[in-house]
Write a structure and sequence with these properties.
The protein contains 6 helices and no strands. It has 111 residues and is mainly α. It has a single domain, classed as RNA Polymerase II, Rpb4 subunit (Growth Hormone, Chain: A), CATH 1.20.1250.
Length: 111
């Protein structure tokens, strides 16, 4: 069955999990979908709504969608972890900018 891709977006794990839940609930399932859902379920650190809000907040700070989604998926808990992901932006972030990103992550992460 061919799939028509109309849009490509980078999304955090939590949002991918929510979308897979809907697909599985609609009766579409396969071994790959189940394994992917199990993986996403084990990696989740925040709810889909919070991950989407975090992604949007990070994008409004000027981060690219793929980097924002990566941070919202991983939910790094230190400035050093954020720095290593932020390198993908191709620019250097100040300590204050990295701390601001960390504060946002902590605001949205599950406790």
């Amino acid at each position: 069955m061919p799939i028509d891709v109309s849009e490509v977006r980078y999304i955090p794990y939590a949002e991918a999990k929510r979308l897979l839940e809907a697909i599985i609930r609609d009766g579409i399932s396969s071994n790959v979908l189940q394994k992917t859902y199990e993986y996403l379920n084990s990696m989740g650190k925040c709810e889909a709504e919070n991950a989407a809000k975090l992604t949007e907040s990070l994008k409004s700070m000027g981060l690219r969608e793929e980097v924002a989604a990566m941070i919202a998926s991983i939910c790094p808990l230190s400035v050093e972890e954020i720095r290593s992901i932020a390198l993908l932006e191709g620019k250097t972030f100040s300590q204050d900018e990295l701390q601001l990103i960390l504060d946002l992550v902590k605001k949205y992460i599950e406790r």
